[in-house]
Amino acid sequence: MRLLVLFLVVLVVVVIVLMVGGCYLFFLPGEYDDMMKMMRDDELKDFRVLIEHPEEGKFYNSNDIEVRGRVSSVRSIKEVWMRLGNSGVFGKASGTSSWSSNLSGLSEGTNTVYVYAVDNAGNTSSTQSVSFIVVLRVYVSTGGNDANDGILKTIPVRSIQVGLSKARGYNVNEIYITTGLYTPGSGLNSSGSDSGVVITNNNIRLIGGWDSGFNSMIGYSEL
Question: Where are the extended beta strands (E) located within the chain?
Answer without folding.
Answer: 48-53, 59-60, 65-72, 77-84, 91-92, 94-95, 98-103, 109-119, 128-134, 138-140, 174-178, 180-181, 183-184, 187-188, 205-210, 221-222
